[in-house]
Amino acid sequence: MVFKRNLYRLVGLDGAPHHVLDAPYESIDAALKAAKVWCNGQGLSCKIKDKGIGVQVLAGNGTWRTVCYPSNCLQLSHA
How far apart, in whole angstroms, are the C-alpha atoms of residue 25 and residue 77? Predict the structure, then answer.
C-alpha cells in the first residue's frame, strides 16, 4: 500500500490562490504557520478582504477542498 502525502495551499476568501502566499505546503501546520506569519507582518497593512485566508487540501480526485479559515487572519488588529 502506497501512502500519498497531502498537499495544501493558501487561498483568498474567493477561493483563488492567495495573492502573496501561493505556494504548496506539505502539511496543514506549515500552511497555517505561513498564514499567521503573513497576517502578523505584511498582512497587517491589508484591507480585511485581502487578509482573509483559507486553507485548501488537494483531494484524491485532483480538486482543491477548503478545510479551514485561520481566524487570526480575519480579525482586525488592535496594535
Answer: 26
